[in-house]
Amino acid sequence: MTAGAVSTEGTGWVHDRCGALIRNVERFIHGKTAVVRDSVICLLAEGHLLIEDVPGVAKTSLAKAIAHSISGSMKRIQFTPDLLPSDVIGVQMLEKNEREFQFRKGPIFAHIVVGDEINRASPKTQSALLEAMAERQVTVDGETYPLPWPNIVIATQNPIDLQGTYALPEAQLDRFMMLLRVGYPSIEHEMHIVRDAVARKLPEQLEPMITTDDVGRMIEIARRVEVAPSIQRYMVRLWRLPAGWSTFGWGLAPGPATRSPSRVRLAPSSARAGPL
Amino acid sequence: MTADDVKAVARSVLGHRLLLTPEAAVQGLTGEGIIENIIDSVAVPQDPWGG
Predict the structure, then answer these.
(1) How do residues A196-215 score in pLDDT, each as one tens digit?
(2) Of A85, A232, A257, A269, which sits with the fewest C-beta atoms within 10 Å of its C-beta?
(3) How far apart are CA A242 and CA A258, in angstroms?
(4) What residues of chain B, 22 to 51, have a C-beta less than 8 Å from chain A?
């Protein structure tokens, strides 16, 4: 890593806190170092994280383990088909003894929001969540309420072909900086998981390793990491390539895929890499 | 930041932003797989600060 404008002291501190965070999450999530590391990178890049996999591979546990390793406000939303947008963003209520409506903030008003099984919610509710994620604010009846900073959503979803799911529209998928898949554990790691289950270990029992203020500071330091022009060019070349697919002759995507190339919609800012 | 940092996250950051045609999906292609192939095919800059 080229630290550029960032002091060595600052990056050392970030490295140290990331290490502590990763080790803490790994006390509960076994054998998934790469996934845990990528989650932390996503956090540093101030990106929302989507974890997609089949039921039972610790998607929710990973989300919870990260959330509980950070002290500060954390809310969990279990998405169901009958969940309403107001259950996520909040609602105007006439409080007892008050003459005016008061806005009662929904669970999105937290530093870390765990959204479980996001694709079980109706499109309307998904849309309310995703708009809040993109704009980092909520508007209800013409009043705008900013979300706390940092505000990171860690959502899980089942693969779209499972019953009872509403696929996230593609335009909303890219609200998430990263999509991670957990994958099945090895036998050895599965033994750890069984041991944890017997010992009644839960991700909620993890001690917080960093505060949300720390996360904010880490994000600010990560933002100042300099990216050399040649690396910027390399990044642009990576994500522009599929757009010019039809002229790019390689064996991977013959036939239809080359004639109607896969579309890439990318804001360069959404591809900022963390400094790990 | 180095090219390796970019490579390390490219799959997770870019894979879900590719929209595959139904024909490509039927062939078993995935966004992540395509990104991996792209990473292999694009030359890595040798001198990061050389521009």
Answers:
(1) 888 888 888 888 999 999 99
(2) A269
(3) 9
(4) 23-24, 27, 29, 31, 34-35, 37-39, 41-42, 44-45, 47-51
CB-based contact B6 A178, cutoff 8 Å: no
Is the CB of B4 inside 8 Å of chain A's CB atoms? no
> For B3-49, how does the pLDDT look when each residue is reduced to its tens digit (9 = 90+)?
888 999 988 988 888 777 777 778 888 888 888 888 988 888 886 56
Backbone angles phi, psi at A101, to 5 degrees: -70, 140
A-chain residue closest to B24, CA distance? A257
The pTM of this model reads 0.81
Q: Which of A252, A264, A266, A270 to mutate to test the interface with B (most CBs of B within 10 A)?
A: A252
A157-165 long-range Cβ contacts below 8 angstroms, 24+ apart: A157/A50, A157/A51, A157/A52, A157/A117, A157/A118, A157/A119, A158/A52, A158/A53, A158/A54, A158/A55, A158/A117, A158/A119, A158/A120, A159/A52, A159/A53, A159/A54, A160/A119, A162/A54, A162/A55, A164/A81, A164/A120, A165/A119, A165/A120
Interface check for B1 against chain A (CB to CB < 8 A): the answer is yes
